[in-house]
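agent: user wants the full assembly modeled, not chains individually. Plan: 1) parse entity lines 2) check alphabet per entity 3) run joint structure prediction 4) return tokens. Steps 1-2 passed, three entities, 1200 residues total. Proceeding.
--- entities ---
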Amino acid sequence: MRSALRSQYFWGVVALVLLVGVNVVKDPSFVQITINDGNLYGSLIDILRASAPVLMIATGMTLVIATGGIDLSVGAVMCVAGAVSMEFLANVSDPGSLTSVLSALGLALGLSLVLGMVNGFFVSVLGLQPFITTLIMMLAGRGIAKVITAGQNTTATSAPFRWISNGYVLGFPVAFLIALVVVAALALVVRRTALGLMIESVGINPKASRMAGIRPRNILFTVYAVSGLLAGMAGVFTTANVMTVEVAKTGMNMELDAILAVVIGGTSLAGGKFSLGGSVIGALLIVTLDKTITFLSIPSAATPAFKAVVIVIICLLQSERVRALFTHRRPRPPAPPAQNPTQTLEEVVA
Amino acid sequence: MKPPAPVVEMTGISIEFPGVKALDDVALRLYPGEVHALMGENGAGKSTLIKALTGVYTVDAGTIVVDGQQRDLRGTADAQDAGIATVYQEVNLCTNLSIGENVMLGHEARGPLGVSWRRTHAQARAALARLGLDDLDTHAPLSSLSIALQQLVAISRAMVVDCKVLILDEPTSSLDAHEVANLFTVMRRLRDSGVAILFVSHFLDQVYEITDRLTVLRNGRLVSEHLTRDLSRGDLVSAMIGKDVATLTSLGSERAARVTDPGAVPVLEARGIGRKGSIHPSDVEVHAGEVVGFAGLLGSGRTELARLLYGADRPDTGEIRVDGRRTSFGSPVAAIAERVAFSTENRRDEGIVADLSVRENLVLAVQAKRGWMRPIPRKEQDELCARYIAELNIRPADAERPIKNLSGGNQQKVLLARWLATAPRLLILDEPTRGIDVGAKAEIQEAVVALAAEGMGVVFISSELDEVVRLSDTIVVLRDRREVETIVNGPTVTADTIVGIIAREGDAA
Amino acid sequence: MSTTLDVERPTRSPRLRPRLNLAALPTVAAVVILAIMLVYGELAYGKIFQLNTLSNLFISNSYLIILAVGLTFVILAGGIDLSVGAVVAFASVSGVMLVNAGVPSVLAMVAMIAIGAVFGLMSGVLVQYFDVQPFIATLAMMFLARGLASILSTAPERLADDSGFRTLSDEIKLIDGPKLNDLVITPNVVIALLVAGAGFVLLHRTRFGRTVYAIGGSEQSATLMGLPVARTKVWIYVVSGTCAGLAAVVYTSKLGIAQNITGTGWELDAIAATVIGGTLLTGGAGYVLGSVVGALVLGLMNVLITRDGSIPAEATTIITGVVLLAFVILQRAVTHARRRT
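--- prediction returned ---
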């Protein structure tokens, strides 16, 4: 029992169950699943479908945070992916053909990957601080999206593209299945190879990692590139859902959801050990939370504030000072003042 | 003539951290108008004692009396109020500000319109003049000065607050002979004006040149307090490392003199290898199956030299050859590729990856070498761990435990295992037995000898001279950041021989 | 006395060595850039070197000047504040709603400034006492403020045209030039210049200001030197937050409307203004007056882009981002080179 309590998933799953319970109290039909034409429908199914984009960016954010960095640009990259795919499909002669759809996908994912690699380059090679690099990308990225669509909220029609988000396979939403496969594949790569170990090592102690023969530069570049790619995937899901890209709104504040999912999942914002499974639970929790708020007819304007408060509380819980309160430990002798967190990796990566 | 009352009297000082008693009933007396040296090896407790005096640590037991008044020092501001000023090894000024600002930081002259810079700089100039630095432009940035001058600026800052006690923590580590001479002139001037100076340094020549009295600490305890002129160098070194001269003489070398094949190409050969500010150009040669020991006191440059051999730092001069081939190690990755491994002495910052398990720490270097795409199968990892846990007696024998929960000694063993697992051809061990219990020390020493017998080249660095003497085939003796002599070990070489070489009167630095 | 010390000192002949403060160089460069842009604009588009253009430059950017001054304090000490734009939104929506509910304008303004200060205090406490990294703490504050603003209202809140609030943006003609070419000033501009002046005094004429620079140079050294580091680190965020509140007052009085989406991206503009103005992003060097120049550079950039007409308005954020990136990379290259020597 105790090990179950300690498991970082435990509280996440408990919260998830509680949230669903709250909804059920309001209206038992919340958990009702109907089958129509061999496909499943219902609020729970909606949650699964809506979780696809969040799963993508949460996964990418987990890896970036594990190296001690941050990616504030995921929302903007989502928007760029949406913009480029919609523009392409709106202007191509046969948007419904498979080639068009694959091309649109390729463009969206390709551009997102490039943006991620740009972030990675600045952080790993030039040693710029992650927050400023991705902050600039966050705003410049949205600008790029606006330039692509010339400021318009481009709409396109393409049944196959739409299917990516709204279709069904084996009764389940395609989006969710794709997201699950991607996360599973990434988890496999990260945990079955030595990549996960190296990411954690670089996040915990870049100096020791370098002395042990790891190249922190390569690790950093990779995680930012992956984060960009996954954000592109998320953008495709979001845009395909409504077949419109809103350059001011698509992906807005999604970085908040991603960071929240990661911290709920138990990964520390300071970097180091990470849990992809935890981030999955965190992502599901956030989507359920959003759904609950709508379901209970609470104005959704309140959610960002609420999410911000949760992040602050979790940060407090993760801080040494509060931890010491709980364990009644004699506070350690004052260590040298914490490294300036805006410090770059210059000394390490050099 | 009866000496004046001490300006600082620390009695019965004890400070304990979880798991280790850093200071145990230590006493220190500082008299006005005196330069007092605080001596001791690594882990002796010097820096802890100083931090107690400067308010960084609070004492668990004991009293501190400053100028006749008992003080409870709970922060750096308290110590400053008590008249205690410190100049640290890294100078610890703000290089982004001007000289005058640094001197007066926190004590700027204020008028009705805020800080009066004219008066502030004037006061700064006056303070600098008292040290003989009257023609410095106080508006110039601090970064335009050499480290030596920055240090003097730091000292004049201490003078601004009219300190009674000046603590100089390793002030000469980055200075050349000329700059040291200037510093000593300033120190003498301050001493003559009644300031009590606490001088912490590893450089024996300097201690004998400038200090009037010294206190020796070892393992957190007070060993003795002497007038400098009453203690010979040999006795000082013995007091610091804990063996009396007689015992040292009896510890003869246990290695039969090794015969090197004259034509053998050394595994590693470094000629004239040096780095400005870190180590003077030195030569090192290691053959396969040879144990080369680096002997010298802390601060003599042992680690610095080793880091150059490994690629952790880049040398400014000299060349390195591996198996006769000229190479240069730009980074640890390059050295590891050449099968050179380095076990750092700074295991907390550069060694352990704290939150990872023992197993993950152990396999890290091997895994890094193989690349991320070829993970070591779990079975192989477990075998590796089991092997080294047994060989090095790592406790607790649980490979999944986070390494941060292990004692320092066991952490060191895991790090050693990390490097042994890479089957290097040259293994550089920096203080591998520091903080390890006696039994484990013997185990590691045996392991080192066995490795050499298998053909590995080993560089063994230790502050314990009897260890170095017992294990090495060749001993490189370092003092004051340079190699002073390389001797071949033999039955006639004892720890006393090394002590003699180190303590030998020579030019300072 | 001085003869006993025999050290080679670079300052032996002070007269030969000009008293060049290297840290001021980036700010001087910013002024030069501004000058070049003015000249270029005049040559390329005309009508730049005119009183009304210059007046508008100050009037349109007074809010940015105030934000940049506040942010300078934080960045100088090595921190960052990502919440300023969102705090402006929350403060302005609250303020307008208060005024529309009958609260006197002056009180509403005080409330807006206080809101900014409170958010700054929260950020400061999180950073200093709970060891939260500045960008996370202020990022959370950003979402919190933005969220609270959205809770209050998602529709634009309008101020009555005759409201006392709006007098701050009343134009005062200083020089009556031909046709519409007048040198005009508004109380907002005066406020902005006063804030810049106050910032200058705080940073260069008080011990608090020296402590800010010292922390930016080396927090460890500052602590060891006995400076009140903890207190100062909280205060800088309070300063930044207060400036955000003040910027909300200035902006709302000019626009007359407050909305929850106000201020999106302003943190990047403020950071850009500060960095362009010569403040090192890593802290320790920079001038408040430089941030003012940086704000004007950004404002002028917008004017030139609009005049040019060929660059779409959507591209402005990209350009600001690229410019900021260029400056950050330049700063990094210079610091790297200096560390090598």
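agent: reporting back. Residues 289 and 454 of chain B are 7 Å apart (CA to CA). The longest helix of chain B spans residues 177-192.
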